[in-house]
């Protein structure tokens, strides 16, 4: 079913373009330096003239990856966007992910759209909670991971100790490509383990320009750095003995992770990371459809929606659906089919969006991300295709753990209220649950992390003009049930059954004991667990 039609573009073009693509996301715990690294990467690729004067979040002009008021106020990244740039002969797509745990569902969706991930670790903190969760998602999805140990210019852990931590806690064998010269806090540079050369660390003023790289042969490095160089060489030799050399097959199989040491704020290591992405990270590969058949990248156009977003910018009050192209060539203006409804969808307004910047996309290839403007019919997880029909598997919705009733404060604004709630639902900001008992004016919002409520409240008021109040409900668990079981489940004490927008019936329980008791007493009832947020 996936390969019955002739490809929509000459084979060599789509294949060679796909082969040039490197589509990845940076995963990290908040504060590890993701925004700084993103800017540094963009600077390196000369997308922006100078990194947004990286002198602390408060003073920042607004990094290219953050734009919502709330994000700025809180200094966290909630929304996701994609940055595209050329580096060497490759086209790099960097997808932004929110760092905060409360938005893990959002991050999960972004990770369905990448071919590799960069795990950014703070040298002083090592692997933190959110890094581990995101890493679990990468492992689950078989995404190859490149590790960057950041902030080596600041006192932190020992390099070998960090490698042990990566190996013990992730199960991946770290294969350092560079090794630090000088302990953390005394960053002299790195030993390139592939050719033994020394790359000297030079600070740039505020990291606002590309750091000039000084590369020296081993003898000159020894003369310059003395003991620090000798230690680095010895430690690197220790690594040689522990199978810590890069092996491309094992990397792609998710068994090893190449590691580099960096100082994103000084732009050091950023060029090395880009080189690794181009040289080692995988290009787009055939994507399995809902039946498990892989659709070749050269098959006719197909893409899936991994993110829907609106109201990003006061000047552009519109709704964007971000698609990741899975196969074929996208040409602006082409009419494609929306797999869910079978209806045609015109792609007249297609844009690259990053931060506040937008530019029209005329043509795009597998691996690329395109923002479709005013794509009101598109929901997260939907498939678009041309010629040969395909449907990609729906994106996983996580088990919500927090529930609240949402009501409009102003009854005269019911229309705005309904529109806003519908929008938040289709973007996946919150799952919207309803029941006859609660009525249309008081649906229940179900979320993975409580900060999603804040986003919902903020957006209902500021974007849809419908101020709302939130009343938290005491439930902590949602399980799937069905129409046959629903009446008996709903009759149990402390349990409520509601219907999600997609028709799924969810039973909400206060705690796992209530759930267990009901299951034990009535084993015939359908009560299926949902995918846990932490996988
Ligand atoms: P995030 O997006 O992962 O949350 O992190 P972000 O880039 O905002 O970086 C968090 C802080 O860490 C920033 O300092 C940033 O300048 C700093 N930072 C990032 N990379 C490096 C690095 O390589 N070396 C050093 N020394 N610092 C780095 P900030 O906004 O001033 O926050 P704070 O330090 O005042 O708390």
UniProtKB/TrEMBL annotation:
One example GO MF annotation: translation release factor activity, codon nonspecific
Localization per record: Cytoplasm
GO biological process terms on file: regulation of translational termination
Domain Tr-type G positions: 19-285
PROSITE patterns xref list: G_TR_1, G_TR_2
UniProt: GTP binding residues: 96-100
Pfam families: EF-G_D2, GTP_EFTU, RF3_C
Domain of life: Bacteria
GO cellular component: cytosol
NCBIfam families in the cross-refs: prfC, PRK00741.1, small_GTP
Function recorded in the entry: Increases the formation of ribosomal termination complexes and stimulates activities of RF-1 and RF-2. It binds guanine nucleotides and has strong preference for UGA stop codons. It may interact directly with the ribosome. The stimulation of RF-1 and RF-2 is significantly reduced by GTP and GDP, but not by GMP.
Family indicated by similarity: Belongs to the TRAFAC class translation factor GTPase superfamily. Classic translation factor GTPase family. PrfC subfamily.
Protein name (record): Peptide chain release factor 3
Organism per entry: Modestobacter muralis
Organism placement in taxonomy: Bacteria, Bacillati, Actinomycetota, Actinomycetes, Geodermatophilales
């Amino acid at each position: 079913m996936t390969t019955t039609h002739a490809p929509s573009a000459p084979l060599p073009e789509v294949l060679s373009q796909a082969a040039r693509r490197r589509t990845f996301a940076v995963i990290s715990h908040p504060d590890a330096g993701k925004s700084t690294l993103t800017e540094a990467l963009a600077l390196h690729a000369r997308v922006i003239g100078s990194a947004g004067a990286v002198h602390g979040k408060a003073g920042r002009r607004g990094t290219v990856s953050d734009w919502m008021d709330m994000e700025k106020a809180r200094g966290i990244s909630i929304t996701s966007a994609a940055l595209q740039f050329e580096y060497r002969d490759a086209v790099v797509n960097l997808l932004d992910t929110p760092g905060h745990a409360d938005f893990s569902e959002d991050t999960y969706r972004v990770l369905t759209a990448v071919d590799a991930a960069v795990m950014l670790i703070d040298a002083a903190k090592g692997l933190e909670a959110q890094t581990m969760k995101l890493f679990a998602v990468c492992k689950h999805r078989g995404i190859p991971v490149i590790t960057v140990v950041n902030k080596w210019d600041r006192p932190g852990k020992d390099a070998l100790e960090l490698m042990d931590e990566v190996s013990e806690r992730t199960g991946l064998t770290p294969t350092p490509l560079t090794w630090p010269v000088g302990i953390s806090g005394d960053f002299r540079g790195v030993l390139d383990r592939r050719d033994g050369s020394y790359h000297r660390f030079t600070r740039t003023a505020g990291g606002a320009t590309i750091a000039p790289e000084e590369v020296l042969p081993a003898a000159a490095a020894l003369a310059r750095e003395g003991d620090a160089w000798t230690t680095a060489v010895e430690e690197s030799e220790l690594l040689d003995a522990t199978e810590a050399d890069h092996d491309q097959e094992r990397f792609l199989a998710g068994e090893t992770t190449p590691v580099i040491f960096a100082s994103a704020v000084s732009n050091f290591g950023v060029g090395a990371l880009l080189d690794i992405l181009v040289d080692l990270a995988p290009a787009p590969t055939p994507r399995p459809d809902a039946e498990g058949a892989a659709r070749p990248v050269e098959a006719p156009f197909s893409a899936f929606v991994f993110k829907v977003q609106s109201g990003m910018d006061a000047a552009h009050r519109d709704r964007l659906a971000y698609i990741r192209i899975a196969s074929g060539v996208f040409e602006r203006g082409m009419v494609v089919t929306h797999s869910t409804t079978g209806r045609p969808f015109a792609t007249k307004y297609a844009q690259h969006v990053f931060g506040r910047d937008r530019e029209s996309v005329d043509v795009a290839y597998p691996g690329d991300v395109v923002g479709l403007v005013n794509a009101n019919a598109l929901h997260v997880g939907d498939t678009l295709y041309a010629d040969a029909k395909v449907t990609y598997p729906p994106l996983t919705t996580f088990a919500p753990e927090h529930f609240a009733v949402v009501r409009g404060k102003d009854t005269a604004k019911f229309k705005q209220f309904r529109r806003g709630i519908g929008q938040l639902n289709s973007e996946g900001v919150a799952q919207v649950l309803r029941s006859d008992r609660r009525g249309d004016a008081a649906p229940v919002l179900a979320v993975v992390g409580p900060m999603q409520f804040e986003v919902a409240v903020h957006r209902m008021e500021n974007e849809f003009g419908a101020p709302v109040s939130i009343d938290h409900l005491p439930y902590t668990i949602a399980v799937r049930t069905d129409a046959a079981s629903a009446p008996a489940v709903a009759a149990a004490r402390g349990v409520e059954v509601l219907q999600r927008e997609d028709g799924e019936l969810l039973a909400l329980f206060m705690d796992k004991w209530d759930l267990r008791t009901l299951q034990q007493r009535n084993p015939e009832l359908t009560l299926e667990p949902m995918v846990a947020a932490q996988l």
